[in-house]
Protein: NAD(P)-binding protein
Amino acid sequence: MTPHALITGSSRGIGLSIAHLLARNSHRITLLSRSPSALTSALSSLPPVASSSLPHRYIAGDVSSPRFWSEEFGEKFMEGKDEGDKIDVLVNCAGITREGLFARASEEEVREVLDTNLTGLMVGTRWLLGNKCFRGRKARGEGGGEDRQMPVIINVASLLGIKGGRGAVAYATSKAGVLGFTRALATELGPLGIRVNAVVPGYIETDMTEGLSSSSSLLAQIPLKRFGTPEEVAHAALFLIQNQYAHNCVLNLDGGLSAV
Structure:
């Protein structure tokens, strides 16, 4: 059966690059983001599913909304749900940032970042687990075929969750929480046959870092002297998906910035 990947924050940037790479590696994709128009464009850019009667699709919605997962997402995801809709790969990539000194940030700005980057991620993952949306692992020798890969959750964190950063207190806090969530959830889900890992990107060429890649002072701090690409982050995610012993694995992808 064609493996199925649900990717949040996947209408552009890192999330869309992961979707493209998984689609090229024989996964069926469900994109999830806020903008229907951006999702329509993203969906049309994916290579077709080679060996599945079920096509790629998208679900539009705000992961930070308290009712999104239980009502909007639940209704759309469960509609016509069959074994093919079970999730093999969950990539939690939705994220926003708000620049500015913490003391000057409004309560609404702080809550928006935390609700999108951390609370929404946790609530969504909990909903999917509670509603048994993950496909069970095929036991060795069952049906006489090859072992099926264990379901896996990939959380996209950030180097700022480890090092911190001026003007990004709420963002850094949320991403540090993503790493804590990854480690704690890994201890609970490993015995149940679900792996949990995290990718920790440094500075990546996306809309979120637009204009920063020309900063000579910032580039000077990065040992490789450049920003990474969304495609390079996607390859790191693919490694964590394919390697069946990768569990509670936190993979830095920052050009060496975490070493200085």
User: Anything to note?
Assistant: Confidence is low (pLDDT under 50) at residues 139-146. The beta strands are 4-8, 28-33, 57-60, 89-92, 152-156, 195-201, 250-253. The chain has one domain: 4-259.
